Amino acid sequence: MNxxxxxxxxxxxxxxxxxxxxxxxxxxFGSQLGLCLPESYLELVEHYGFAGYWQEFWYLLDPREDxxxxxxxxxxxxxxxxxxxxxxxxxxPDEVPYPIFPEPGxxxxxxxxxxxxxxxWLTEGEPDSWMTVYTxxxxxxxxxxxxxxxxxxxxxxxxxxxxxxxxxxxxxxYGEGPIVSYP
Length: 183
Hints:
Blueprint lengths: L2 H9 L8 H13 L6 H10 L4 E2 L3 E3 L18 H13 L15 E7 L4 E5 L8 E5 L7 E3 L3 H10 L6 H4 L11 E2 L2
Antiparallel strand pairs: 1-7, 2-3, 3-4, 4-5, 5-6
């Protein structure tokens, strides 16, 4: 098991909702896209699912909802995120300097924030080595993050990775409040 996922499990044991069936569904969805998804991400999904908000601000996207990550509709599945990136790239090519899935090595969303921030994988190479890129809003300005999903999650909930500082400065309470909350 991933070391950072083990730390998350230790800190957020009460919030866990283990479901191996969910993992299989997400793996099958990845297969339908022609992808194997990162193992550490699948472990996180299996343990916590998609229903919760991490730190009451950001959430994992659920690819299974009505067409998943690649559909044009808009909700917490991330389906509209790729369409939005295509529109931005068409009008302002320099704002989205990456290919967009299903282009080879393209952006594929895996998490989002309440204020429009987006976490994407760059789907090139082996899934467990996919880089994450983050944009705090819909205007572009991507930041490359060379960490796996549990390392990003652990860093955010522990305060070791202050990713949201650009948006909130010192006002964002890393390590404060509920780690995962379910509506």
